Amino acid sequence: MASSYNLRGAKGKEPARPEEASPGRQGETSPDRGQGNLEDTVNRLVADVATHEEALGFAAETFEGFKEEMKLMREQMAESVALNRSLFDLVKNLQDEVAELRASNQRLLRISSSSSSHKRTSRVDVQRPAKYSGRRDARAIDNFLFQVDYYLDLQNVVEEDLKIKTAAMLLDGDAVAWWRRKMFDVENGDCTIATFDDFRKQLRGYFMPVDAERQTYRMVVNLRQTGSLREYIRAYQKLILDVPKMPEKDKLNWFIIGLQSWAQADVERSDPKTLEQAYVTAERLADTQRKSYTETFNEGV
């Protein structure tokens, strides 16, 4: 310290002592002014604290809002996850059902293919019925329609339009001319032929003799057994087809009446209730008669 003072003294100026410093130097603050500055500072601090508290309150509210939004988002996320799981399960079930349907379809295709193959191999080569030329004969008409119906069934023809066209192809002569007129009537709306039954009725209505049924009734009543019993049975069976409306009881009675007395007695003894039962009894008599004739012939030889 002494050397320091000596240096300063060498320059001609003595350093001032601390107690000699002037209390009234510029830059020094008075007590009143310092108190005002302190109050301002405190007020500013209070204002800052209030601002910070307001900011903290807003931040707290914002944070609560964020919490609510986060909660809502979590709930929505949970719902989305559940929905995705449900959709996944639904898609999985649909995929399983599609796979099952495909398997079923494959089985059906194999069955159908096998059935079609079986039908192709088992189909009978059926000869077409003889053509109908328009002959006005009840038996010829009924036989033609019966054969056509049977042919369509064997050929597995189920569409009505195809049935009609197939039957029309089996017409000839006057019957073809009749069918051309009928087609013209259908086009003009004068009649309707939409099914094979319609075709059958129209054909019978035009070509069937007016008194055909009456004539057949007369033939049934007048038929008598003049030859073998079996020939009589066959003749009666053919006639009876032309009188489908004849009561079953009349068919039975006229069959028995036409028999020769010996056959008539045997059939009546069996007391048949239907024409079919009478046929069976008569057929047995015919077999017995033939057997007896054969045995007698062998004994004579």
UniProtKB/TrEMBL annotation:
Signal peptide: none annotated. It comes from the Eukaryota. Residues 124-296 form the Ty3 transposon capsid-like protein domain. Residues 1-38 are annotated as: Disordered. Keywords: Coiled coil. InterPro entries: Ty3_capsid. Residues 11-22 have a biased composition (Basic and acidic residues). Residues 84-111 form a coiled coil. This is Ty3 transposon capsid-like protein domain-containing protein. The lineage of its organism: Eukaryota, Viridiplantae, Streptophyta, Embryophyta, Tracheophyta.
